[in-house]
Queue: 4 jobs
Job 1
Amino acid sequence: MTELSRRECMALGIGAAASLAGLPASAVEIAPSLDALARARGLRFGSALGAGGQSDEFGDPRYRSILLRECGILVAENEHKWPFLQRGPNDPHDFRRADAMVDFAEKHGLLFRGHTLLWHKPQWLPRWVNEHDFGSQPGKEAERLLVNHINSVCKHYGTRIGAWDVVNETVSEQTGKFRETVFTRHIGSEVIDLAFHTARAAAPHARLVYNDYMTWEPHSKTHRDGVLRHLEAWLKRGVPVEALGIQGHIGTENSDSSTGFATGREEDWRKFLDEVKGMGLKMLITEFDVHDKGLPADIDKRDRAIADYARAFLDVTLSYAEVEQVLVWGMADHYSWLQDRWPRPDGLPKRPTPYSKDFKAKALRQAIADAFRAAPGRGQRTEL
Ligand code: XIL
């Protein structure tokens, strides 16, 4: 069971802090919010949410109230992805689901990140793109589809969306090489240049981000190296990438083999972050959660291990002033995408997010709060 620390109680302005410390977190309202704690260090905090693309936590008033209480930034879990916006090559984009969330964010003074203009992985491109007849001038047709998509989305939002994950996951974690898609077949690897340049022209105000899931675990070395080499090449060619989105899906391996938490990763992770920093890029943690597939069933033990692991990762990562935001991939366990993927061998629900199914703050919430408190300050950005 998550407990409030003495300090947390003091922050709540509760005089009898000593006697309250030890109460379940659910017994008292959690304050200050994660975004307030982040802001105190020049950081921002936010979360993903779905509005019917695949899940509909936006329709859940309890979830919305957690978002409003804790977050300064929101991002659509699926609703800004190409397959969710455009049904066919000649169909107009349908922004209704996504717009409902952006409207909600604006109404409540929250910022909204755009995720993602090009998820450059065949299984996440629209099926109709993969199966499209590219005709006698396939390069031109591929370019037309992509440019039309990026322009339509960026222009629809204008300055309402201040940052775009222009490209998501184009580096293979197995080989460190570029992924092959219909776009590489017809345009070549310059499809990435095209996506960024198109986004730059269509959203001149926006921060343009490359987002991927390389992380600090040993199995991620090939992926990390691949991402570094690609970032380097893009920057050398003048591709307008400004920041690296570190998804931050940490924990057991992001595959079907459960290994538990690995060790010996801080040094490698620092080397990676140092290189990204050396390239002059900003960094964001864009999809943080902790995969607990390999951890014991016991909830207290599991939550403790998750929190400690998260804290260690955040401490190292947030020690870099270039890291400006932390977004979690969902605030409550039962809505987490990880519930449907790579199930635990014991079949138990996973606990990857800061709040439990009954919307009680967990040890992970405390770990994120403590990591913000411990982080060195950095210059506050007002935009995304
Ligand atoms: C996931 C969503 O959470 C799922 O609902 C969907 O089925 C697949 O995509 N990396 C990303 C996110 O960049 O877009 C992914 O989101 C999780 C991994």
Note: The longest strand covers residues 282-291.
Job 2
Amino acid sequence: EVAAAIDAKKTTLADADLDRRLMTEKIDVTLPSSPQADGYVHPISQTIDEIIAIFGEMGFTVAEGPDIEDDWHNFTALNIPPDHPARQEHDTFYLPGEHGERKVLRTHTSPVQIRSMMDQGAPIRIIAPGRVYRADYDQTHTPMFHQVEGLAIDRDISMANLKWVLEQFFTAFFGTEVKTRFRASHFPFTEPSAEVDIQCSWEGGTVKVGEGDDWLEVLGSGMVHPHVLRSAGIDPDEWQGFAFGIGIDRLAMLKYGIPDLRAFFDSDLRWLRHYGFSALEVPTLHGGV
Ligand code: PHE
């Protein structure tokens, strides 16, 4: 009797609950559907637009080169001769080419230096954002990633100009004054060479740029090597300049608080809805980056 009473009570409660839900959860099929988003700008595209806006104001134009490069532009013209150990360090993806000449997926944006100097000669002031490829995969490395190359050649360009340009860039990009640290380094295509760190703090487990007393490496740079100028048809006795290569993905992660590099390239629409940008906002220095 007790069990039957409990069952009966259960049924009445369940019925009452169902009635309540039918009353409150009505779907009005005559309502217009919720508006569909037009799509989102990927954080990498947004970051590239911001980089172009900032360097654009400093007189740099955008140059491009192919993702599938030849060995000469990617290595030899950049003072990396055959059998140079730097070729192994790059974990290059090779492709079959014509006439027994293999092609490479460019391992950095530096070949665009060569292409631009050969096309435009000196003086020149360009940036070259784009995809680069290395056979590498973990939490901080993906086989495809992004760099922006910078190149300024004129009669009296110095390391001081390089330092100023980079500090202007980071301060505009992060919207706060960012100290930089130059560390002596080596690249075959620059002499002298420096790796550049930006000031940051790791307090509380999250990185904050522009404060604290830790450093984060973000780019390689230096004065363009005379051999490189000569390869590209520019007389090193008349012209000199600086070049740099910044990792774009790392900058986007830092600015927009994105913890895992790999998520950039998973093509997950939920992720893009969360981290993406409105397609109608075009970054400019006046409008805000
Ligand atoms: N190409 C270098 C790299 O990918 C970066 C760099 C560019 C260094 C220009 C110096 C000058 O690591």
Note: The pocket of phenylalanine is lined by residues 108, 110, 187, 190, 220-222, 243-245 (CB under 6 Å).
Job 3
Amino acid sequence: MTIPGTVRAAEPQMNLLHGRASDLGGGLIVNRLLPQRARRMVGPWCFLDLIGPVRFDAGKGVDVAPHPHIGLQTVTWLREGELLHKDSLGSWQRIEPGQLNLMTAGAGIAHSEESPPDRGDCMLGAQFWVALPASSECCEPAFEHYAELPETEVDGVRIKVIMGAYDHLVSPARCHSPLLAAELSSTTEAGTRLKLDPDFEHAITVLRGSLQVAGETLAPGTLCYLGGQRDALDIALAPDSCGIVLGGMPFAEPVKIWWNFVAHREQTIRSALDDWNAGRRFLAVPGYAGESLKAPEWPQNGRLK
Ligand code: MN
């Protein structure tokens, strides 16, 4: 099947990538695995932040004030802890481990993310961005929450389908291009052969413990880019391990990312910035007590990378 704006997946490879610390404010440091110089995207996945493991001091937690997005979907996935999402559509959603918060920004949305008052003090999870294809980058904004997702256990490895499809299991989450996100976990030592779509390129990251992929041991905070053209992948998990496999049809051109905006054209980002600064397009986030985030300055000399 040919999907407009996508290309044939690269040959199989194994590139181990390390993240870099990024401060989301309020003392929340995340490990940013994408984008980076050596790799901009994996299929439509254009931004990967690993959160934690972190233990918050009493009274402290996540508090990311309202900020805008366009052209992407945010995928929030927790292994430990809780978050409270509020957005300009009026959504107000608590998320717990094993659940999916999926926000489709499309033409524009604003949201905040906070630790709920009655939370535990530990957090481990991830926030990933899916770039929307050009044909749907200006779609209506939407928010979906899934308390349960399809899962199976093969050879002792638990496979939970967050987005897309694995084997006969299909996530109910709305996708705009062919993609996969699945959590792999095990309490004991276990190994299996994953079935992959050879039209996709894939990558695997580790949240906890360690994963062996084709003989290479992956530690938390690393991303292993696997290339494409694979219909199977041997993986092994150490006891109490958890990872996420991501995949999708590669985009012909990497999207442009600046601040919280994703688009296929720079002008689309510039006009979203102007609208945010002028108080247009993006509505207020009901129920958030506090100021919204200020956008950084547009690059003075030159264009977005
Ligand atoms: Mn956000």
Note: The chain has a mean pLDDT of 95.
Job 4
Amino acid sequence: MQNTEEKMRHLIDQADFSTQETERLLNLAEDISANMQAYSKKCEGKILATLFYEPSTRTRLSFESAMMRLGGGVIGVASADSSSAAKGESVADTIRMISCYADIAAMRHFKEGAPAVAANISSIPVINAGDGGHQHPTQTLTDLLTIKKCKGGFDNLTIGLCGDLKFGRTVHSLIKSLVRYEGIKFYFISPEELKVPDYIIDEIVRTSGCEYKEVNDMEDVMPELDILYMTRVQKERFFNEADYVRLKDSYILTLDKLKTAKEALAIMHPLPRVNEIAVEIDGDSRAMYFKQAQNGVYIRMALILALLGIENGILEEKHA
Ligand code: NCD
């Protein structure tokens, strides 16, 4: 277990890591992807706890794969029903216990802010693996690694974010990260009901000075895009089934709609996809979403090493 005298680092929100820290983490992930063997014993004797109170395939399994590829062990809960949360245990009590069983924890929770509550009292590093419709910082690290690999960097990119921009936590975190770069232009492509929340527009996008435009139609902006980031309409966040049914097919990307797109467009999606990207696109050289999922393992390996202090010099020391 870590020395709690030092101010421990967690990853709850994109802003927890500076631009420099994020870039060092991306560089480490690139090194890991090129030299996997060199990292295969770095976490021997360490345990990751995955606490997932909402469904997940990629995030949980890529965290577990990451820890196992580092030579560490994994314990965890894969649903709220299979843990003491079902008996009414609080997040605070759970993390107190987990701090005794593991060296680091990744938590996904349906309540916005739950991982932040855990981090406040935890004696081990806590990673937010998605909290309600709020944030998903490790998906953003995965997205940034994918963008870095296919575009070489982040400045001067035109990015179309399409679909459920209201409830899509991956979108919220990605916006928060990309506003830090120069010459970014956003197209927010969504139906009226699923627009980017006002607090993100007012507090993050406007204050950054980034150019942005909210549009309904993806075809109108397609020729300008360097990145098209598609998202699933988040069924589980709707209060009303009828609204979901009305909005679920708002955007379906087909090869036909890509006719005017750039040759070098990167099509991204955090996955799972429902029907918003036609499978005919999977074989197109612009489809990056499966590579994106693969990058999730490398960046999570880098993150575990940085938060456990096994790779020094990635994160700054914070003093209490
Ligand atoms: C995303 C999530 O959980 O927010 N999935 C993921 O972690 N890769 C996106 C989604 O569920 O639509």
Note: The mean pLDDT is 95.
